[in-house]
Specification:
By secondary structure, the protein is an alpha+beta fold. Helices cover 43% and strands 23% of the residues. It starts with 14 loop residues before the first helix and ends in a 7-residue tail after the last strand.
């Protein structure tokens, strides 16, 4: 096992940590004879740099007792140095991760360094933190391993960004699949409509696709046109825009009733996603998959918004089996973002969905 050299007697820092100060020492070597500076050891310079590092730097004994705790460790984990030093490192390790410490100690006892180990640690207030750890053995002046030095970097934001990206990619994939299903259904509906009414299939289909585009423009316009979360728009107007592509010429296929509600623009996209999911499923499996089917939508508002979606005249509803798809996951996330709840009732005459949103927007 290679012994680290050029360390001051009794040094508790690793060679990697001393590298951080080597460039500073080289720059300041010309000031070696300056009063006060000559008295500063490499260890003192290193201690100052470690204390002011953006990364949390912690040292501990081979038995896991904390021996040093810099300012970034205080900011990251919430414990002050006075609270942490002398206690076991397990104060920042979640219960389900305690086994990791045994593995880390085993590596350290054998003189092995651990680089960029991504794991979870715990703040003083109980919050879980995604961090990246680099862990190095610490040797005494005889070369005997007496502890470990840990450098921890908070990667929580990076993890959140990766999760958002994953969700966006899955949503895009889901939307593309639904788009094909919707276009296919529109072609079928338009073809039947053209056969019975003698109209042009191309014209009918073009009008429905244009209605879909209009719905998207409506959502974009309302989201961009308002000034902050206080801006609002008509919920019935949104429903009409989203579902107009599936309406018939008589206006009987999509029936809306009840109290109109002003929905603040912060909630608008969430409502649009829900309505799009409901419509897509009705086109694939429900009342909008057949000529005679229709959807009745009722909106009521007291202390909360209650939207009731009732499918009539479609095939017998079927309860989904097996694991839920991404559409269901997206629906759950959307309902959660609105702080509401959803209930489905598979009745013999069609599916009935009730959505309640407790946060009441302004009425108009």
């Amino acid at each position: 096992m290679e012994r680290e050299t050029n360390a001051p007697a009794g040094s508790s820092f690793t060679a990697d940590e001393r590298k951080k100060v080597s460039s500073v020492l080289a720059i300041n070597s010309t000031f070696a004879e300056h009063p006060g500076i000559s008295a500063l050891s490499a260890e003192a310079w290193l201690a100052a740099i470690v204390e002011n590092s953006d990364d949390a730097i912690v040292s501990k004994t081979i038995n896991g007792v904390i021996t040093s705790w810099n300012r970034s460790a205080e900011r990251l984990f919430g414990f002050s140095a006075a609270e942490a030093v002398g206690r076991h490192i397990s104060i920042i390790i979640p219960d389900d991760r305690l086994h990791e410490e045994d593995t880390i100690i085993d590596h350290i006892r054998n003189g092995r360094r651990i680089e960029h180990f991504e794991t979870v640690r715990q703040h003083k207030n109980g919050t879980l933190l995604d961090i990246s750890l680099t862990i190095s053995p610490v040797r005494d002046k005889e070369g005997v391993i007496v502890g470990a030095s840990k450098i921890a970097r908070d990667i929580s934001e990076r993890k959140r960004m990766a999760e958002r990206q994953r969700l966006m990619l899955r949503e895009m994939h889901h939307r593309i699949k639904n788009l094909f299903a919707i276009v296919s259904a529109l072609i079928s509906v338009s073809e039947r409509s053209a056969e019975t009414a003698g109209s042009s299939l191309a014209d009918d289909l073009r009008a429905r696709v244009a209605a879909l585009a209009a719905a998207q423009n409506f959502v974009l316009r309302e989201c961009e046109g308002g000034s902050g979360e206080d801006a609002s728009t008509s919920l019935l107007g949104l429903i009409d825009a989203i579902l107009s592509a599936h309406q018939d010429k008589e206006g009987a296929r999509i029936v809306m009733k009840g109290q109109d509600v002003r929905v603040n623009n912060a909630m608008l996209t969430s409502f649009a996603l829900l309505l799009h999911e409901f419509a897509t499923n009705a086109i694939k499996y429900g009342s909008l998959s057949v000529n005679r089917g229709r959807v009745e939508i009722e909106v009521a508002c007291n202390d909360s918004i209650v939207l009731t979606w009732t499918e009539v005249g479609g095939p017998p509803p079927r309860v989904s089996e097996g694991s839920a798809g991404f559409g269901s996951e997206l629906e759950r996330m959307t309902i959660a973002s609105l702080k509401g709840w959803i209930h489905r009732e598979w009745r013999s005459d069609g599916l009935r969905i009730v959505v309640e949103i407790p946060d009441r927007p302004s009425n108009g």
